[in-house]
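User: Could you check the structure of this?
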Amino acid sequence: MRIKVTMPGDKSGVVECSETGALAIVEGGITLDDMRASLHGVRPNSAVGEVNSLDAEAHLVLRSLESAGWLVDWPEVEGGDDDPDDDEGIPNVDNTVN
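Assistant: Sure, the predicted structure tokens are below.
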């Protein structure tokens, strides 16, 4: 999966996240050193998936870069039938409290 990223200062590029979780820069002006420098100030937090190393899974690195001010153009995720207006399967219960 390829994802466009933009660091503060409008330097941008495209990274590729492999099935194994590895992250690679495939085009643009960003470098791994740019990413490392930005991650240096991130405080690791397992509860929200923030890391401060490029050794982590790609999605965690990208999430952490976002918290460091980078813009990550996350791909659209195709959803299922989760239509919020679909009442099928929900019992019709009218609870009125006076």
